[in-house]
Amino acid sequence: MSEINNILPSYLSKANEAEKKAFFHVLICLANIDENFDENELDFIKEAAKTHGIKNLEELYNYGSPEKVIKEAKIIKDRHLAMELIREMCILSHVDNYLSDSETLFIGQVGLALGIELEKIEQISNWIIDRIIWLEQAKLIFEEE
Question: Which pTM value belongs to this model?
Fold first, then answer.
């Protein structure tokens, strides 16, 4: 899954500390929104934190309610950073091979709070799904387990 993170450049490097904190609060909240925060989701978040130079990730686990996280996310004003967050959310929501209604709703709520149109959120989501399918097909073609 980490190869997907390398598709686009990271705009998080330009984010301030409050934006980075909000970014990871959103990811952690998403992983827990369906009350099934599994090991794959935790590994994804840890890898994303490592990739983006986030230290003390455990301090970000206390994020509050989803409503509070959505309000906090509004600090992200840069459209590219907002779209990268939606991209990361879409990837994370598929890490456990189950996209719940609560995850879908939360992604939409965060996206709208960040000024990302529903059509753009759907476009990003479909792109991620296509990429996952493409990677799975590659495993079959190349007889990888």
Answer: 0.88
